[in-house]
Automatic annotation (TrEMBL):
The keyword DNA-binding does not apply. The keyword Transmembrane helix applies. GO terms for biological process: response to antibiotic. This is ABC-2 type transport system permease protein. It comes from Nonomuraea muscovyensis. The lineage of its organism: Bacteria, Bacillati, Actinomycetota, Actinomycetes, Streptosporangiales. Residues 6-205 form the ABC-2 type transporter transmembrane domain. InterPro entries: ABC2_TM, ABC_2_transport, Nod_factor_ABC_transporter. One of its GO terms (molecular function) is ABC-type transporter activity. It is found in: Membrane. It is a multi-pass membrane protein. The chain crosses the membrane at residues 21-43, 55-75, 96-121, 133-156, 168-189, 217-237.
Length: 246
């Protein structure tokens, strides 16, 4: 099974390298947000700059997980190669695992420009162990968004997935406090923020990189969203399987 997972991961990575626009867009948007929102306003405060850098990292991870994964899955469903793969006896696990590993690799690449900008233009400070812990928190917090990306990819066409994933991405990112700190947002946003998955995800990154205590409500809701997204992704896969192969 491990060799099949590696084969599918290699195949997916080659696809990304050959058509790198998805990787470029995943890296460009958080870097541009870093230059627009963090460098002008929080560069001189080490704690604020480090926290904001974590938020921009989460934006890049969300983009790759939610938009990138949903679009790539929807596009694959429209290719003649995909039905053939689904008839093979290996089952869906190797393909899913390969796609998830590829998405995680894209996430890690997407945060590199953010870290470079933080190091060159802000007073953000972090130790190597905390940076590694922050990367692990980033991947863990991105799980529900990858599952949501799979769900959208299995229920929508590629054109619809582009629009719907973007419509979901921006409100969830804003409500989660990724573009602006939750403390300066309107009162109703502060009340809603702990209940959206992006807030719980970024709380994990903040805790890992700065040593702050995560909001327990946000973390519990993140776990709940992960379960809901997993159920939705499994249902969407089985629905698609039944429509195409029954």
């Amino acid at each position: 099974m491990s060799s099949l997972v590696l084969a599918h991961t290699r195949y997916q990575m080659l696809e990304q390298i050959r058509v790198p626009i998805g990787l470029v867009s995943s890296a460009f948007f958080p870097a541009a947000s870093m230059l627009a929102f963090v460098v002008p306003f929080a560069a001189d405060d080490p704690v604020a700059a480090t926290t904001a850098t974590g938020s921009m990292m989460m934006i890049g991870a969300m983009s790759a997980a939610l938009m990138g994964l949903s679009i790539s899955v929807a596009q694959d469903r429209e290719q003649p190669w995909n039905p053939y793969l689904r008839t093979l006896p290996a089952g869906p696990l190797p393909r899913f695992a390969g796609r998830i590993l590829t998405t995680m690799a894209i996430m890690l690449v997407a945060v590199i420009p953010v870290l470079v900008i933080a190091g060159l233009f802000t007073e953000a400070a972090i130790t190597v162990p905390r940076l590694l812990l922050g990367m692990a928190a980033l991947l863990a917090g991105s799980v529900p968004f990858m599952l949501l990306g799979l769900f959208l990819g299995f229920v929508l066409s590629s054109k619809a997935a582009i629009g719907v994933s973007q419509l979901l991405f921006f409100p969830v990112a804003i409500l989660g406090g990724l573009f602006l700190p939750p403390q300066i947002m309107p009162a109703f946003v502060q009340a809603v923020s702990p209940f959206v998955p992006s807030r719980g995800a970024v709380e994990l990154v903040w805790a890992a990189t700065t040593g702050s205590s995560p909001d327990p409500v946000a973390v519990v809701m993140l776990a709940g969203w992960t379960v809901v997204a997993a159920v939705a992704a499994v249902w969407a896969y089985r629905r698609d399987e039944g429509r195409r192969f029954s």
